[in-house]
Please model this.
Amino acid sequence: MTKWIDDFLALAEYKNFSTAADSIYISQSALSKHIKAIECELGVPLFIRTNTKAELTDAGNVYLEYALNIRKFTHELRYKLDKVGISSYILHLSIGTIPCLAESGIMKSLIHFQEKCSNYSIEILESDQSQLLKQLSQKEIDVAICRLDLLSDAEYETVSLVTDEMVLICNKDMFPFEQGSEIDLSAFQLKDIYTIAKESDIFRLTKKQLNDIGFKGDLAGTFPRHMMIYSLLTQKGGCAILPKQLANLQMFPQLTYYRIRNAVKTQIGLVKLSPGNENPQLYEKANVLFDFLRNQST
Model:
């Protein structure tokens, strides 16, 4: 009755044999056999099957409650067993992230997590924030590393990992200050300001920073990635307003960065969907990572 819990929970979530089978990396025929085996053992049908859907029966909804608890306690057991080094069960954890892992130090935390929880296989996918939140809502990734500023508390659960701030990046000959010095941007006439593309959260942060210093002009341009901006600044000059976590300038020795007085700050953290009444089982796997990073940050 507990052997095919993951198969049952996948079908309860997706309500479609093909989609559910894909989500747990087995064939549709294997999933069908596993569900039938549970039903035979329980002696009741768990799903009403049609050509395109599989809806839970009343008995299925009763079993769902027990299955969720079994899944929760199983994860807790595996986590505890892994901590003493005797678990060999491998769980796949898909993590989407904005381009910040190396610069922010979050990668070190993920490596530490995998060292402590070696039964987790981690896949890391990089994209912009809007795409990550879409993938999260569609269950294509388990968790996301995003900027937390505009996320809804009702829709997401978050753990703050890093505080970031906006900085000015430019050629070293633009100002006679040491790298990392704090400057008052409102005291300078800025020209040719660049940042990340309009659909990004960084664009919003840049615009807020410019509004805060009373800048009335237009941006000179936007680019999909910060490395493109650095190449442009090296060749043509100008400046960029970007988060400090992106100010890794080792490949661009002509460039430097300056901290901004009264800089706009932003939080980077781990994000997962809030548990819903329909499919809370999805979130148990991500909870181990959440608890680990939450304990690391306290």
